[in-house]
Design a protein that fits this description.
48% helix; 13% strand; 7 strands; 10 helices; Rossmann fold; alpha/beta; 7-stranded parallel sheet
Amino acid sequence: MNLTAAEVDSPVAIITGGGTGIGAACATALAAKGCRIMINYQSSYENAKATVAQCQDLGVSALSAQGSIAKDEDCRRILDETWEVFGRVDLLVNNAGVTRFADQKDLDALDASDFDYIMSVNVNGTYQMTRAAVPYLKKSDRAAVVNVSSHSGISGIGSSMAYAASKGALNTMTRSLARNLAPLIRVNAVCPGFVDTRWLSGKLSDEALTEFREKVSAAAPLQTFVTPADVADAVCWLGLHARSVTGQLLVIDGGTHLTTANPL
């Protein structure tokens, strides 16, 4: 790829799970700010292709790379491909995540394989992607990692107990990485509440989803239901602008965490 002088100087962002939902919103928001984009996807090829096209329409170079972040060799390959094409890495957005939907009151709804699956992506995968990125990020003068965590890691509420536990581990790891990668690399996390993505629409009927949105919005002090764009705005700020911020967990939930009981 032949790059112009301006492109050589423009930052490069990698977004895991970047084909849909929050990841896609982060990719296009970063592209709108002039970042060149590498989108990682595991199975959502068509979605990733569409998001790449949206980023390119915003005037930046964008590519996609298939791979599972649960596999260390895939993580290293994604970073190598990014460096080979763009010649730099400035921002890693660890967005890829998985869950199992299970009633938290039913302790038999999950088994060890569920925990292994969720941890392998949400925790191990994020660690592996970050480890693979560090040698490249250290060559940047604006290096940052933003982990997409969840309010579940703080509240324990969420799609399942295994998911909440994985995000709690991710929050702790965010602070460990921030401490140990400073001063060259900043590491922060966003912790969204319920977000209006296909994650929910794939679980609930249209009627149930509408009712759920209304219920969550009514419980939130800001009377709002979080969108992927809301999360992407925070990711952009932490990744590109918050030069004196590291080790922070930013909750994005319309203020729902301020309620004194389970809002749902």
